[in-house]
Amino acid sequence: MPYRLRPHIREMAPYSPGKPVEEVQRELGLKSVVKLASNENPFGPSPRALEAVRLAAASMNVYPDASGRRLRDALAVRYGLKSDQVVLGNGSDGLIHNLGLVFLGSPDDEVVVGDPSFVRYDASAHLAPCRLVKVPLDRQWRHELKAMAAALSDRTKLVYIANPNNPTGTIVPETEVRALIRDLPPGCPLVLDEAYFEFAADVPGYPDGARLLSEGLPVVVLRTFSKAYGLAGLRVGYGFADAEIVDSIDRVREPFDVSALAQEGALAALDDSAHVADSVRRNREGLRLIADSAVEAGFGVVESHANFVCIDLGRPCRPVFEALLRLGVIVRPCDIFGMPNHIRVSVGTEAETQVYLEAFQRVVLASQEVPA
Fold first, then answer.
1. N or C terminus of the chain: which is more exposed, having fewer CB within 10 Å?
2. CA 295 → CA 290, 298, 342, distances in Å?
3. What is the distance between the alpha carbons of residues 236 and 91, in angstroms, rounded to a whole number?
C-alpha cells in the first residue's frame, strides 16, 4: 500500500559507505583483505580510551549524562572557550543534521557548499528541503571561496567548508576564510568542518576555527574523535559555536545522543596527546608513501592534509578500483563524488600500506591502460 511519505525523501541518495571487509572476502573468496576506503585511524585508539570504555561498560545499564558536561568542560578548557560554546553530537554527522534542523525551514532557504565535498551537507539540505547551491572546486581541487562568496544571497542560511576537504584533502588558508566571513549575509554562519583538524593544525596559514570563534566571528566549528583519536566506532563529534546556536542544537538533538561509553572514551583520549601526536606522525609517513608511489607510476596526486590521498588516474577509476579489489585491497572510487578519474586511498598501518603499494604496483605493471 502507498504510504504518505514526504515526496522529497525518495529523491535523497542514501549514504554509500565503503565496502565491508567481510563482504569482499565472501564475494571474491579472499582470506585477507585490507580496507583503505573509510579514512579511519588504522593505528587504533589510545590505550587510555580502551581502559576507560572497559570500566564504563560495567554501568551500561544506566543512561549517560545527557548534557555531556564533563566532556564539554574538558573541550572548553582545551580550546580556550566557554562550556556554553561547546556542543556534542553522534559524530560530526549528527551535528550537521542538527544544524539543518536549527537553520533550515523553507524551500527558499539556501545552503552553499563546495563541489565535491562531504556528502552529508547535501543530505541536510535535501531533508529540509531547501535549495542546495554547489560551487565547483578550483583546478587544484580547493574550495573557491571567491566563487562561494559570489553565490551568497539574503536567502543563504548556512555555508559549509570542509577544511581539510573530503574527498580531496585540500585546505584553504585563513586569509581567504576571513574574507568569506566578511561577505556572509546577516545571521548566516560559516560552518568550518574540521574533522581532520589534527592532521593539518601545524600547516602554515591553516585557520583554527576555535580561535576565530573566540574572536567573536560568526563561525560554527565541527570536529570529531573519529579520525586522529581513533574512536570512529564510538561516534563522538563535537562542535564550537555561539551560545545561542549551541542552545538551539541542544533543544533539537536526540536525548542521550552520545553514549556513556563514548563520553568516557573521548575524555580519556583527549588526555592522551602523545597518542594523537604519534598517529599524526605515522599518518604523514603513510601519506608520503602512497603519494610517492602514485607519482612514480605517472599519476597525478592531489596534495592532502588529511589521512588519505586522492589519486588522478587520468582514466576511469572503476577498472582500477575493481583490479585492486580482486587483489584484496579496498579503496574508494571517486566517481561517486563526481571525480570519475580518481581513487581515494586512506592511510593504513605500515603493513597495510605495504600491501596496497604492492597491489597498486601489480595493477600498474599489468597494464598501463587498465581496460574500461
1. N
2. 9, 5, 14
3. 5
